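Quick log. Single chain, no ligands specified.
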Amino acid sequence: MAVASEQRLPTQSAPKPPLLARIVGVRTNYQAKQALWGYVFALPWIIGLLVFWGGPIVASAYFSFTNYEIIGNTRWLGMANYVRAFTKDPLFWPSLGRTFTFAIFYVPAAVGGALLLASMLNQKLKGTNIYRTVFFVPHLIPAVALAVLWTYLLQPRFGPINMFLRDLGIDNPPNWLTSRDSALYSVILINVWAAVGGNTMLIF
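-> predicted structure:
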């Protein structure tokens, strides 16, 4: 009896994705083009991030090791500036403490407030689009306009907030932005108000 010899069929490997698809990490040219357009639209923001954030961070790190002046010769000092800041500068530790205070209050309030508002917007209430717009508007206000607005609102004598407090019978309302006791917390409040709307839209 003849025994048929089994022939093994050659295995065919899957075709390689096109070059463009391999570059952006997808399988087809269509997906590659879609991803490429995403990078194109994100490019201005990335360039702005590198120029206006990355550049100053690198420059600040370099300048911290020198005696840099706008006019004059720059001389390398090594760790001398850091030694002086940690051991001789009376303002360093209080400034660092205020920075930590700002972060401790600002981060939970900005993130927690955004989570709360996003959960409310997910309840499919009437007028959700209106609420979404109202919450997002503060995020769109330029920083300069924001500073002018809140400086007016918190003006000690004629600001609307203190005038309202006087109408409630509070004779000596706080000097929000000029008092050492309240200035930091006023700045935290302003920053939280400006950030919550944008964070809400990211979560929502």
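The first helix runs from residue 19 to 24.
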